Amino acid sequence: MANTLFDKIWDSHVVKSIEDGPSVLYIDKHFIHEVTSPQAFKGIENRGLKVFRPKQVVATADHNVPTVDQHLPIKDELSRLQVQQLIENCAKHDIELYGLGHSFQGIVHVIGPELGITQPGLTIVCGDSHTSTHGAFGAIAFGIGTSEVEMVFASQCVLQTKPKAMRINIEGDLNKGVVSKDIILYIIAKISASGATGYFVEYAGSAIRALSMEARMTICNMSIEMGARGGMIAPDDITFEYMKGREFAPKGAEWDKKMIEWKQLFSDDDAVFDLEININAADIEPMITYGTNPGLGIGIRESIPVTDRIPDEGERKNIIKSLQYMGLNSGAPLLGMPVQHIFIGSCTNSRIEDLRLVADVIKGKRKSDNVQVMIVPGSQQVAAQVKAEGLDKIFEAAGFEVRQAGCSACLGMNEDKIPAGEYCISTSNRNFEGRQGAGARTLLASPLTAAAAALTGVVTDVREML
Known about the structure:
There is one protein chain. By secondary structure, the chain is of the alpha/beta class. The protein folds into three domains: about 5-160 and about 245-255, Aconitase, domain 3 (2-Layer Sandwich); about 165-235 and about 265-280, Aconitase, Domain 2 (3-Layer(aba) Sandwich), CATH 3.40.1060; about 335-465, Aconitase, domain 3, CATH 3.30.499. The chain is built from 15 helices and 19 strands. Strands 5-4-3-6-7 form a five-stranded parallel sheet, covered by helices on one side. The protein is globular and about 55 Å long. About 50% of the residues are buried.
């Protein structure tokens, strides 16, 4: 019987199926951070339990951490408390913690892949919706809620209903100035922020196969933003080359054994998907969002939709409300609009390749006086690589502020907030109301588009600079 990649991994991890109900799914790797784990630790302790398999849990601090002076005590009381609780809980339950000051610390979805912890064929969970990032390696990875974190702590399993299968095929060559962030923003704009609800998505096609691992991670990261349970890409030689030699990747004979297993991880030629979508890569141009969900996006040279022409009343009202929050007008272009902030970071676009893209655009140039620019590496290892390659000198010469590793201005849960009413072109994954701080107005875009706007102070088509 022909199977999808998702079927092969899911079926091999089902411990028990409940008739007309969910499955008990075994979890290979459990990532945790300081935000969603405290209540789960408290839950198992109240039941007199310990973490069942602590060696399959990896912890880091990322959401609440400051991105300046990380050697000093955290100023914000709530943030300091959450990070301290993580330290105490991990020590109590014998869990590996890459906390502040550790050379492996960073955003949870950045450190897993770069350390070789994320591997093909695994089931991976975290109390964080962007766990879908790890699906770029041919893994089933998805975010879970606090009660489910507790469930995995207690049993190394989670109750899950099997989602439907969707495949999105992207064929052809990408245009100049178009990168993986544009691909996923284009897909979400095409099918909407709820268009993949109930599905697990496999990305396929020649345009996907041509991408680097870090580009693939960007795409899988934002699968959740179109309502999908997760996203994945079949592993191939690009995957294996990226993984080889990493800290916790298999070595020697174990590597050879794993390679035999991993090379079986693909959707069979005659596998049937519940839904398939075909996209021509040539149709994608640099993208930018204008609203308050990631599905409200347009090509950089397009205009905001004219709301009077939107037939669906619910959609029309949603866009009108979004435009009111964003301070934008129906039918207006974004090109040339002034912005005040640029944020380059987050689990979507804070890896070394993202920062190299930015450096290539800005080298020898100076930022606009009208914008503040933050570069936030996704991990301590990325930060070290930035310095080793001299990218920090390029950023500083351009007037960019280079900060320390963390989630930073992706979300208003730390000190790096965007002031109310001001616009930020962000390489992160969400543009919800208040996401980057109360009243902040977020325009999602690629690192290339963010770099171009940093130089000009306005929304800019990066293709004019390439």
